[in-house]
# Entry
Amino acid sequence: MVRRRSLGLVMAFSAGDKRRDGARRVVVTGAGIISPFGCGWGVNADGFRSGRVALRPVSLFDVSAQRARQAGELTLPGRLPDTKLSARQRGRVDRATAMLLHASAEALATSGWEGDCGGDDLPVCLGTSAGAMQLGQDYYRAVLSGASRLGQATMVDGYQPQRQAQKLCDAFDLPGPISIISNACSSGANAIGHAFDLVAKGRAERAFAGGYDALSRLVFAGFDSLQALSTTSPRPFAADRDGLALGEGAAMFCLEPLEVARRRGATIYGEVSGYGAATDRHHLTQPHPGGDAALRSMTRACAVARCSSERVGYINSHGTGTPLNDSAEANAICRWAGAGSRDVRVSSTKGGIGHLLGGAGAVETAVCLMALRGGWLPPNVSVERCDPACDFDLVAEPREAPDLQVALTNSFGFGGANASLVLEKVAA
Amino acid sequence: MSGGREKIAVCGAGVVTPAGWGVAAMRAALAGGAPVESQPFLGADGTDLAFRRRPVPKPETKLPFLRHPRLRRSSPAGRFLAAAALEAIGDRSAELGRLAVVVTSYTGNVNYSQRFYREVLDDPATASPIVFPETVFNAPASHLSALLETDEVNYTLVGDESQYIAGLELATRWLLDDEADSVLVAATEESDWLTASALDLFRPGTVVGEGAAALLLGRSDRAEVEVGCLTDVHTITANRSREAALREMRGQLQGQAGDPVYQSGHEGALWGDWDGVRHCIGEVFGEGFGVSVGWSCVAAVASLQAGEADSALVSGAGTNQGCAGARFIKNT
# Structure
């Protein structure tokens, strides 16, 4: 069987740079983020650490007939980052792609990969749930109104997720291949997990991965129709929670073997040491009440990381704020941790920025890396009375955690797509 | 393991095409070579929308899997997917072990998406909570896992035609890494006036097709057909034209003289000098978007099972993401 070219690139590794299963240790050497807190690592770290809430009334589209009216709507920087896109291409960048470009520019700049992304093979692994839905909506209305065919063609072209990914590749001279995983709200975590697999198993020398999604009227109305949106304020794991808020944003990461990163003196944000995925077939939009698939994805991720639950010092939960998700996830966490569940520190950051859907897993990976680097835990905002199912240490206020060595992030999506990532601090 | 390498076996194949439900109907249509009859898209008031399509015909008997609670309201793409998958699995359900799923799609659940958005434009307060979840890209894949009662990993890859080969590559990796005992790799697409109108902007007059294709992969030395070669996905970028990606794909495919080639339909003159038989799937079934490469793979496998050749090539010319191909060989 013919395998990928990259399989032929076998490098020599010292013992500490290989895992016990023979796979390579994979580290993050570049990271970029844009969220309702703002654009860039620093402003986001400040926001997550302090427990700021960045939800506000939706201004992008009309929500006057909806039950819910707020979201984590971000303010895009006034201009796109400097890239290789032509003026024409820049003029056709949609909102979601703009987020992707901002996060990518920061990730590549911090990695030291800039100007060195060419060559034959640099997998670009993206997770998105809605892609450029805004352009799809625009196209639908344009067809019905008989707008110009040229304008329609531009919308159709930009709507396709692979065209967003291609703009990313063109902007930074990334050769691909491009993989777009659309597993609803776990897409971002799946994309990072997929990239981790590629690098750990020697199928790629490095990979560029993350997730993104922008707010759109169709998706907002969809969650509202399900009565999944909070009409007050989202408060994950609160006993009186009444739903989620949607948000938007992107996070991107440069992944490469630890050995390579050390050799070139790269900044190491942390190690991706485990990835697990499982499918919950209970219902299209509702999790199994016991959190069976969530338990499987967490267990698998920890098995890959060769990490016991006792070693995990923090869980960034999926924690949407819907009654069904949070109780199922709480059950899964307690089952996973067993007798030690009360020592497990858990929070959801969705109360501050909303649920970023395909971008959630990526942004929450960034939160875990920030926490590991800074030695703090992001608070789960707005909880006065905790759901009794939360038999763990819910981090309700900003907290220092200089001992934090290992974090786990959960992402669970429609269709029962469950994914977990284990992230670790790397000793200097 | 065999001869120092592990074989990836094609354990089953299934399709839904505009020619009907199943591999036999597909092969009959390909043998005839004539395009399946097309129909006009009609608007809600019966007016001809000036786009044509080759729809999947209604099944001759009621599909038993539609009784499954997850399939009752599923999109056409979801139903096509389920039918192709069940045909690929056949009577092997007891042998599947840990069954993973990869589904690829280009256009997604566009019927329900445009319907739900229309409801939102009419009155968002009354838009259907039943329709919305079916608009999500991975809804068909999720229903399939529920139908097959598998809890293993399930990916939906979104992109152009090349992604079916990417899906086969991913499945191969999972099998080689012992992350699954078998993997169902499927593509599904449904036709819709909105998609047809979009296609008409770029390729006026193109007839839209629809359907699904599925291959069941496993590790076995006993299977009749094995995956001989999967090329890289040669990405189309500003620095690599589609033509260059096509040439790279053909160069990597390791075709042998006389191999039949199953083309997805956008290869242009790429195989003009090839001395084997060439089949253009798109000419018979219409523009199938992502499923056209899936159809090609199933057709190639079926031809080997029928003893028509010892190996066969699939040329996956993507529209705007990449080009990738596969070679299937008869296990002698």
About this structure: The radius of gyration of chain B is 19 Å. Residues 195 and 331 of chain B are 40 Å apart (CA to CA). The longest strand of chain B covers residues 8-17. The mean pLDDT of chain B is 94.
